[in-house]
Design brief:
Rossmann fold; mainly alpha
Length: 329
Amino acid sequence: MQKKIIVSGSRPTGNIHLGNYFGAIANWVALQDEYECNYFIADWHALTTGYAETKDLRQNSISLMADFLASGLDPSRCTIFLQSLVRQHAELFLLLSMNTPLSWLERCPTYKDQLANIKDRDITTYGFLGYPALMASDILIYGADYVPVGEDQIPHLEISREMARRFNHLYSTEIFKEPLPLLTKSKVLPGTDGRKMSKSYGNTIALADTPEEVRKKVMGMITDPARIRKDDPGHPDVCTVFAFHKVFNESEVPEIEEKCKGGCIGCVSCKKNLQEKIAAFHTPIYEKRTELLSDPDYLVRLIHEGSDKAMTKAEIMMKKVRQAMQIDF
């Protein structure tokens, strides 16, 4: 039986952190045997908000490839590629933009939210407004059956589905599938300060962090602010450290919760326990990532090989698109 097709990507805007890993990458790794998976480094998407800051884009793309591989993605089991090396994405983006109503783009939740909140750069550009059409091209060009998303991203995917329906209707074809959301269960990690883990908050633990940096970040985590002394009863539900234990130390969670509430375990001891558990997970990934980055030419070669593979798939779809639009001279 032919495997169903999955497409997803990540912007090369900095180092992958544990929130990214458990929110997306861990699921990508789990899916790569069951589905025909296409995972890409979304460097064109990075330009929608960072078009004026491209000096690190190449190195960030190479580093992201190392993050992918160190996390368990395998080029022999999935297609990993660089968006800008598969120029068919740009061609389909152009063609979709010709028939996508402006109102569809303007109602995109991310467009409105980022336009209101990003004040340190000018994002009133055609590329930023039109990025849903680029996202749709990324998905539709591979005939994706599913896109792994969280519930908050379903409205974004619906725009791609609408573009597929409109194209099929306009050109009396059934070329494009309407991709469905693959709702994935993700482990949620807060940042080290209790807020959402985000590079903009400076509260992340990155795969690129050294073991010593990870140890310091764990030992500096925010705990129960109402707990002053070691034997004071704690409130695990408001403690960042306890939230991390639920991801990295599930078997001990009931015991830790009981001891914390009973004032039988101190925050320092609890952090040291967590630090060991995170190190057991993080250090092998860090070491593999470091080894991969010692040979950037190898990573670039893998990027090109994956992109060539993706280009072959994309061109099959583009021939159908050109034919449907009667521009296949």
